[in-house]
Amino acid sequence: MRLFRLFNVVLATISSLLISCAQQTVMQHEHQAMQSDSATMTHSMSSNAALFEDKTNAPQLESRHKHYRFRLYSQETPIPMKKIHSWVVHVEDLEGHAIENAEIFVFGGMPMHKHGFSTKPVVKQYLGNGDYLVEGIKFTMQGHWQIRFNIKHQAKRDRVVFDIHL
C-alpha cells in the first residue's frame, strides 16, 4: 500500500513538472512572437485606451501582409481593469468588403513585462458584417498591452498587432 502511495506521489510530481514545462514553453513562444511583432511596427499602432472605446473612432490597421484591414474596440466604456470583458474586431479587405467566417486567433499581453494575458481570450462568434466577438480580455494592471490577431481566411494567413496604453 505504501509503495502504491509513493508511486502516486511520484506520478503527480512528474505530471506537475510536465504541465509546468508546457506552460513555460507556451509563454516563451508567445514572448518570442511578441518580440518579432514588435520589430515590425509597420503593422502595429500605439494608441491610448480612449480610442478603443468607440466603434466610430476605433483604430484601424492593415495586416502585416496587407491582406486585411482591422478595427478594434471594447464593448465596455471606460475599458475595465481587473475584470474580464469583451471586444469586437472588425475585419475587411482593403477594398472595404467584410471578411466573413474567418478563423481568428487572439494572443497578447504585456511585452515589457514579458507575460501574456492571465486569461485565454478567444474569438467567440461571428456577429456578421465582418465583426467578430472577442471574449476573455482582462487587463490586470496599467501599462503597455498588445492584442494580436492571427487570421486565416481562404488561402490567406496574416496578422496584426494593436498596442494599447492603459
List the main descriptive attributes of the protein structure presented here.
five-stranded antiparallel beta sheet; 10 strands; single chain; globular; 1 helix; Immunoglobulin-like; five-stranded mixed beta sheet; 166 residues; alpha+beta
Write a short abstract of this structure.
The chain has one helix spanning 2-39; strands spanning 44-48, 60-62, 68-74, 85-93, 103-110, 115-116, 122-128, 131-137, 144-153, 156-165.
Task: Report on the architecture of this protein.
This protein has 166 residues and is α+β, with helices and mostly antiparallel strands. It has a single domain (6-165), classed as Macroglobulin (MG2) domain (Immunoglobulin-like, Sandwich), CATH 2.60.40. The chain has one helix at residues 2-39; strands spanning 44-48, 60-62, 68-74, 85-93, 103-110, 115-116, 122-128, 131-137, 144-153, 156-165. The protein has a five-stranded mixed β-sheet, with helices on one face. A hairpin with a 2-residue loop joins strand 9 (144-153) and strand 10.
Please bin the fraction of helical residues: 10-25%
CATH architecture call: Sandwich
Please write the string of helix (H) and strand (E) elements.
Answer: HEEEEEEEEEE
The coarse silhouette is: globular
CATH homologous superfamily heading: Macroglobulin (MG2) domain
Low-confidence parts, pLDDT < 50 over ≥5 residues?
17-43
Query: How many distinct domains?
Result: 1
